[in-house]
From TrEMBL:
The gene is Acsm3_3. Pfam families: AMP-binding (PF00501). Keywords: ATP-binding, Fatty acid metabolism, Ligase, Lipid metabolism, Nucleotide-binding. Signal peptide: none annotated. This is medium-chain acyl-CoA ligase. Gene3D superfamilies: N-terminal domain of ligase-like.
């Protein structure tokens, strides 16, 4: 089994080099500014509207209980524009500002990621396993102006907020409400 693989290895190497050389010789003009949300997501949405691309889900999420969220390119574009407006208007964020998201794997994580791309806001992902000490360190090091988390992780954030001089807004993802927090669902 090793000999044929070794022979294929040489074949693959020559194909890779050939492919690399063809790419290297190709002179593609790079855009001065590139935004995934508008240059890819919105473009695919328009292709679907025009009938030049078959309708496929842009996002399909299923949880352990079998609940699912399915967004088309048009829906994801629309929702990400609304979320970008929430970040810009309600949270007061501007292009280049940083937002930290400490969320479990929920659809809003991806929605906020695209919204940040759309608005030029730096998205800093954090796992839901972070401790209060971890959150504090990341908020201080990044100088994030906003944090987004779930209602179960909000107490850990609240315990470190007094030590975070750059933090201006707190956004909660979920159905609950907390004093001093904005609720994403309500704002959307």
């Amino acid at each position: 089994p090793c000999r044929p693989f070794h022979g294929y290895n040489r074949l693959l190497t020559s194909q890779i080099i050939s492919y690399y050389e063809s790419i290297h010789q190709y002179k593609k003009e790079l855009p001065e500014y590139f935004n995934f949300a508008s240059d890819v997501l919105d473009e695919w949405s328009q292709l679907e509207k025009d009938g030049r691309k078959p309708a496929n889900p842009a996002f399909w999420w299923v949880n352990e209980e079998g609940e699912e969220v399915k967004w088309s390119f048009e829906e994801l574009g629309f929702l990400s524009r609304k979320a970008a407006n929430v970040l810009s208007e309600a949270c007061g964020l501007q292009r280049g500002d940083r937002v930290m998201a400490v969320l479990p794997r929920v659809p809003e994580w991806w929605l906020l990621n695209v919204a940040c791309m759309r608005a030029g806001i730096v998205f800093i992902p954090g796992t839901s396993q972070l401790t209060a000490k971890d959150i504090l360190y990341r908020l201080q090091a990044s100088k994030a102006k906003c944090i987004i988390t779930s209602d179960t992780l909000a107490p850990a954030v609240e315990s470190v907020v007094p030590d975070c001089q750059f933090l201006k807004s707190k956004l909660i993802v979920g159905k609950g409400s907390r004093d001093g927090w904005l609720n994403l669902q309500e704002l959307l």
